[in-house]
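Encode chain A's predicted structure.
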Amino acid sequence: QVQLVESGGDLVQPGGSLRLSCAASGSIFRIYAMGWYRQAPGKQRELVATISGGRTNYADAVRGRFTISRDNAKNLMYLQMNSLKPENTAVYYCNAEIRGDPDRTSWGQGTQVTVSS
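Encoded structure for chain A:
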């Protein structure tokens, strides 16, 4: 199994920056893709960014402002968020797709990001 723990969420002013971290433990070798998702109040959970192999993918709303990355040596994944907007306020979740029979999905507990003056 894979366990995920997010950190780095905070209150930040519009235009500010935050870096979220996701620490993975357990059967790390079975992870074949990871990503960040978010859920704003009253809305469905949505994709923010994914990383699989050497490729990354971003939601249109964050492309150019957010950057997803991994440090495999430290079992960490990051989401660098720049030029934050109030509409980016949400709980941000770390996700991992895990090889198995059947394949499984693991989620972290979430970290709150609030963008407000």
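The chain has a mean pLDDT of 97.
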